[in-house]
């Protein structure tokens, strides 16, 4: 967790000290992040010093989900919509610094944005020469999530974790 996600982080800690433990030991390994998170939450509920724990995703894999086929029409529509938004944004900025004619400025920048968006999208699509005629989303995910704990607190954590409802026997105990 970064310092930006945790407003209660102690001042003076840097990212290197946050993302490392001194002699970490494996507490448990899970297939799902939610299970690893549940383990740390359980330890927190038992007043365990959870700042001595880490959840580490391992065995990373990239997943690409194909969302549809790209056609010239879809690419053109996407370029026009993207250009309209950019034109609207630029038009709003320009209209703040001019007197009157705000709607005309916004309308003109939106039309110009749509035209440029259309041209750039179609040129970019043509340059692929059909090598990637589909749209997709990509994500890198872990296949295992390991809960690590500072060696000084490993015994206490294992004892508490043994009482977790539905807990698996710990092979590291």
Summarize the main sheet.
3 strands, antiparallel
| Cα-based radius of gyration, to the nearest Å | 26 Å
**% residues in beta strands:** 15-25%
CATH class of the largest domain: Alpha Beta
Strands ordered across the widest β-sheet:
1-3-2
What would the CATH topology of the largest domain be? Answer: Alpha-Beta Plaits
**Overall helicity:** 40-55%
Number of domains: 2
Contiguous helical run count: 5
The CATH architecture name of the largest domain reads: 2-Layer Sandwich
**Can you identify the CATH superfamily of the largest domain?**
UreE, C-terminal domain
Q: Average pLDDT across residues?
A: 84
Overall geometry: elongated
Count all strands and give the number. Answer: 3
State the secondary-structure class: alpha+beta
N-to-C SSE string, H for helix and E for strand: HEHEHHEH
Spans with pLDDT under 50 lasting ≥5 residues?
1-8
The CA-CA distance between the termini, in Å, is 27 Å
